[in-house]
Amino acid sequence: MDTPAPSRRRRLLVVATFLLPAVLAVGGVLYVHGLLPAFVPSGDFPFHYNGYAHVLRHVKPDGDVDFSAIGRERKELDTFVRLLAAFSPRSRPDLFPKPEDALAYWLNAYHALVLQALVDEYPYLESVKDPWLGRFFWGRSWPVGGQRLTLWALEHRILQREFADPRIHLALFHGTRGGPLLDGAPYEPAFLDAQLNDAARRFIGDRRHVRLEKDTVHLARVFNTYREDFLSALPEGRRDSVLQFVWAFLPDTCTERYGCDTRSDLDRACGPKLDRCQLVFEPEDPSLPDAAERDARAGAP
Question: Alpha carbon 211 to chain centroid distance?
């Protein structure tokens, strides 16, 4: 068998030297953005959220999660993740005919995959240090309805690009105590609007995310990161400050949360146009909302 001449081998080596990094780069982009295909299992069983709802019973009323209990009973979580591989609005649009059907699916899919990733590494994963760029969000992919999706792709390419609803930013659980907390029930198409409103009220009503001090308002950094999304959701004439969005979801009174900030408090401090206050955007607490850690603190002498 003839072997390539030295000059030919050199040319092949040069081509491979330049071509291989380009191929790897393109493959990496396709991987991170969830553009690689995945095998779709047979869908000869019904799609439902029943098992996933059972998993969410381990979410405490304050938003902390009993990861140990989910790990001990993870069969239902893994079963739901396998359902995601067989069904999605992309592979079975007949099952998700309305926008709220699709949005509820993607929200539940995202949270189920976050939970599985956390349970797989628990208790060694103490926190998600860099939720936007860390390997937790782009270093692993799952088959979802014929696509291999990373959490980054699901959040940025699907949820944010296809559904122009800024309440999503206040509903997505990233596995941190300082971000949106996980709800104890799946998102349901029939109640989706109310559930997203509840998520926004829960986030904005938390003083870790919105806190008024004289004429300064301390806001979670998400309001700066996605400022344009929040402003675009406001009616004409009210798009001059992200505080207009915050105001809409603040409580009228503090009967349920003692010491909270209300709409009237914001009006008095910032003026009727909400333009007199200084805004300070605070970093997110990256610690894991682990119920076991909370219980250990409560039991400490």
Answer: 23
